[in-house]
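Inverse folding, one chain.
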């Protein structure tokens, strides 16, 4: 059974999605849950090479599935990630909770993570754009915060690669990508993949 849920609601859309997965099998031939996340990422970006830079740490896919099944909240860095996620879980976005950023002289995404500290334990934290949010999250984790899983794919040339390496060095489940590449589209694809895998378990 193919685990497909990419917003397709018509027969034509179903055919397009199924064809996409058939094509992607030549790049990711396996059928594990991690392989499914890789396939979804390749399709979302239209880039087979993305599979080579995605890193899974500490049984992250299983922990993510469990978090979805437990109806865990989701914390994102920016609205673009929030609106792309297809789940119905309670969702918070850092830039929407950034009171005090100007006074502290830090980014809105970073301040939002600080302000949302009490929402992070047990959450699916999804950072697709802002390295500053990822760095602040790492500091909070080192201070005792424990998300269920971190999906970190911030993109860019300033602190993006470094912030993702910081996430990988932590003793928390995480899905990240190596280097300057990444972005909100990749982050959303991974989170929606976890949601889809959880739904498929519910229907077995």
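Residues assigned per position:
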């Amino acid at each position: 059974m193919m685990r497909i849920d990419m917003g397709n609601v018509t027969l034509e859309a179903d055919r397009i999605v199924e064809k996409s997965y058939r094509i992607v099998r030549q790049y990711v031939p396996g059928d594990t849950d991690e392989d499914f996340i890789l396939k979804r990422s390749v399709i979302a970006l239209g880039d087979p090479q993305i599979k080579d830079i995605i890193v899974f740490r500490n049984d992250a896919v299983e922990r993510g599935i469990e978090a979805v099944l437990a109806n865990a909240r989701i914390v994102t860095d920016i609205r673009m990630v929030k609106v792309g996620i297809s789940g119905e879980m309670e969702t918070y976005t850092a830039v929407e909770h950034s009171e005090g950023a100007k006074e502290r002289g830090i980014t809105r995404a970073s301040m939002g993570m600080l302000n949302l500290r009490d929402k992070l334990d047990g959450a699916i934290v999804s950072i697709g754009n802002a390295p500053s949010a990822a760095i602040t999250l790492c500091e909070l984790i080192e201070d005792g915060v424990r998300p269920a899983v971190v999906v970190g794919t911030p993109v860019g040339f300033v602190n993006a690669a470094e912030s993702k390496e910081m996430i990988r060095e932590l003793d928390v489940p995480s899905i990240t990508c190596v280097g300057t590449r990444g972005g909100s589209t990749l982050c959303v694809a991974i989170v929606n993949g976890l949601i889809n895998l959880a739904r498929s378990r519910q229907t077995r």
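The domain at 11-202 is CATH 3.40.50.10230 (Rossmann fold). The longest strand covers residues 54-57.
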